[in-house]
Amino acid sequence: MDEEQPAHRTAAPDGSDGVVTPDMRASDADRAAVMQILEQAVGQGMLTLDEYSERADVALAARTRGELDTVIADLPHVRRQVVPAAAPEEVRSWMSSITRKGQWTVPPHLRITTRMCSTTLDFTAAVVPGPVVRIDVDDYCSSTDMILPDGATADLNGVHHLGSSMSVKVPTAPTPAGLHVVVTGRVRFGSLTVRHPFGATLRRFLR
């Protein structure tokens, strides 16, 4: 009689001592923990921004623990040092307007929940915490305008939209010296625009 073979197991993405099977479903907390690992790896020079962008897309779309584990399999040192992800800073608004501009301090992870609102996030003079900023959007019947400084890039692959318009007027591939904004979440019957300031293209041409 054949002996029963133990299930292949992989380390939990949050760095704990517990183990999980690769086919177990991944939760939002699991994906957030892996995103934090990737952000730490960028900060420590283990990943380039291009590598971060590719892995972040995989992590955000992952459905199982095994898929998440492949994203960080070659980052053992970072995995052991990971700490619980800090809760994102939250902004909620209903039938009003939200504006952030000038020298405002951008949190590493921002969550925006809007209902029938107008939101403007101007990053051109903002104080940013590092090379990558994550923004979660939960929008219904609202307009959201993100203005990035010259040279900044954005990834909107993690945004699900229904009956909405999405316009990305900045490069999507991250650059070594520029800010990279990763936007995730959902937009329903609204609009999301990510752009450089008006006239940025002309200014680059005249240099």
Automatic annotation (TrEMBL):
Domain DUF1707: 24-76
Pfam annotation, one family: DUF1707
InterPro entries: DUF1707_SHOCT-like
Region of interest (Disordered), residue spans: 1-23
UniProt protein name: DUF1707 domain-containing protein
